[in-house]
Amino acid sequence: MRSNPRDLASAHLLGIADLLVSEIERLLRVGERAARWLAGEAPKSDVLRGRVVVLGFLEPSTRTRVSFEIAGKRLGADTINLTGGGSSLDKGESLLDTVWTLESMGVDCLVLRHARSGVGNDLAPRLERMSLVNGGDGAHEHPTQALLDVLALRLRGVSPGGLRVAIVGDVAYSRVARSDLFLLTALGAHVTVCGPPSLLPAGLAGMARAPGSIAVTHDLEDAVSGARVVIALRLQRERQEAGLVPSIEDYVRGYQITADRLERLSPGALVLHPGPMNRGVEIESRLADSPASLVREQVTAGVAVRCAVLERACRAGEWATPAAARAQANVEAVRAFAAAREAS
Ligand code: CP
Questions:
Q1: Using one digit for the tens of pLDDT, what is the confidence trace for 307-326?
Q2: What is the pTM of this model?
Q3: Which of 110, 173, 194, 229 has the fewest CB atoms in 10 Å of its CB?
Q4: Residue 238, pLDDT above cutoff 80
Q5: In three state form, how does the secondary structure of 257-307 look?
Q6: Ligand 1 centre and the CA of 149: distance in Å?
């Protein structure tokens, strides 16, 4: 049965800021179950049989696009890829007309990656039957990345409650950092954000779900000392061209996460990276391949999280959140969106 318009608000996934903690917990629980199931022999289910999922990736992606496709296929959905090149977007069709076209064809869920921050927040209210999942929008949010980060930690037995986390690097333009900040602080973690002043926007502390749970520093030693988890962010190389980073060598000296630094400042800490990695820039190659690295486990957890997200997106009635709670979540989401905008 197709989504009822009443339930669509609980089917869209536009950002972590939109989710209630109970919704986050449910997605992680279902993701954990999916991870166990996916680790078994030739997992195949018909839970989404007959559902159509379009993967609209209008920016490059390997991990997000392929893992959504694997997740959809494992669950029995029909998955279709749509890219900018070769579609009528190339002929000047508006994104809204493209999205309405997909909805009119009976597509159940559109996973959208797009360069414009907040694009899904503009499109979602115009939809009646098709759910929208944010696969990364500009510098706004990348909700499934944050969910898979937390799932990868949980599968290693690390719970976010009371966890000390450092997020290091190019925060200003990072949708991953925003979603991680919303998610980790919603689940009780304390996060220190670290990077050169030119890559740390103002207003980051205002993104905390729990007041006081985000600290900001430019000093890597401050950030990493005592952290159980360090998340290294990709340095977007165009920042150097824009003059925001004096040189890659300076950045490496000040902010590269290395095995020696980690061992000295926080022995036993785990390191995460959303990918794609610039080995030898934000993360030492040796560390990325070491037992302290969860990089490959993150990718594996990504398929499981996307199984949970697609199930929620395509079976909205079973995941519906009471209207009053949803309205409250929307109020909080507007506040968080404003804070994220201020921090960009
Ligand atoms: N982490 C991430 O979004 O990777 P992709 O760009 O490969 O999807």
A1: 999 999 999 888 877 666 76
A2: 0.93
A3: 173
A4: no
A5: ECHHHHHHHCCCCEEECCCCCCECCCECHHHHCCCCECHHHHHHHHHHHHH
A6: 12
